[in-house]
Amino acid sequence: MIFDQTNLPSRTLPYPVKQIEVNPFKPKQLALMSKAVMLDDFGPAIEAMGQSMTNLDVNQLTAGDFFYLLTWQRLNSLKRNPVMAKWECPGTIFADRSTGVRYTPREVKVLVANWEAADEETRKTMLDPAAVMLDGYVCSHGNYQPLVMEDFRILFLEEDIVLDTRLDYPRCDTLAQFVNLQRDPDYGMLAESGQWLRSRKPLLLRVQEMVDAEDTDLLEAACEANRDYQHGILRTISKPCEVCGHNHEMTMTVSPKSFFL
User: Fold this and answer.
1) Which of 129, 162, 167, 185 has its CA 20 to 30 A from that of 5?
2) H or E element, residue 44
3) Are residues 222 and 99 in the same domain?
4) In whole angstroms, what is the distance from residue 72 CA to residue 240 CA?
5) At what angle do helices 63-77 and 43-52 cross, to 10 degrees?
6) Which residues pair with 100 in a beta bridge?
């Protein structure tokens, strides 16, 4: 599949190319995803993504685009084993106290809207909403639905962004280091900001240089970029109930382990 400024979270703004071709994972790449899980290391997962891409070195890929493409890979590489969303609906269903006929909230709104829009002659053949006594109860339907890319919300970069010259977007060349550094008791909370520093040095050295600076200017610039210029796939998704239509929000994170669940 071709990814470009229309569907990639970064809009390809950080790259020298404006189109990236990505092929679904094959068993060789899935073996690398298994290795990433067993070693608790994102390095093999990044290698797998690099093997599936053309036109761009995976180390240049931004972290935001990586997780977007990882989600795309999970949903497209294993089509006979989809990712399923499972939840019990907390929405509301209404039942006519006299007839037992059930209505969803949307159907109740349509019933009222149609009545209000009808003339007196047409109303003679319609159900008067004022004459209907409804009891409400929790839907509780057990939903079990496959996820598709359209279920996820995407955060895109704005096209007019101008980064501080000392900064660069977090890239895959330090993503595995970032995941590990987050666990470091000394620098874990600074790892996100350190990712934004423009440097060829390992992430830990970037963070140490930021910490050793005489003032907080660079640290604050990196923190502001991390706050303002995020892009990628959001973990919160919304799925409608099959019975009542209530949109239920849930958190869904795709990681190397997701390929084996």
Assistant:
1) 167
2) helix 43-52
3) no
4) 21
5) 70
6) none
Opening angle at CA 39, ends 38 and 43, nearest 5: 120
- Domain assignment present for 105: yes
Q: Is residue 242 part of a domain?
A: no
Q: Which amino acid is at 157?
A: L
Backbone φ, ψ for residue 16 (5° rounding) = -80, -10
Q: Which domain holds residue 32?
A: 2-81+149-234
Residues 73 and 105 in one domain: no
Helices (H) and strands (E) in the chain, counts: 9, 11
Q: What is the rounded average pLDDT for all residues in the chain? A: 93
The pLDDT tens digits for 170-182 are 999 999 999 999 9
101-111 pLDDT, tens digit each: 999 999 999 99
Give the Cα separation of 172 and 22 in Å (integer): 16
Total domains present in the chain? 2
Residue 244 lies in a domain: no
Both 181 and 64 in one domain: the answer is yes
Q: pTM for the full model?
A: 0.87
Looking at the structure, tell me whether residues 67 and 96 fall in a common domain.
no
pLDDT at 246 over 90: yes
pLDDT digits 0-9 by tens, 1-35: 999 999 999 999 999 999 999 999 999 999 999 99
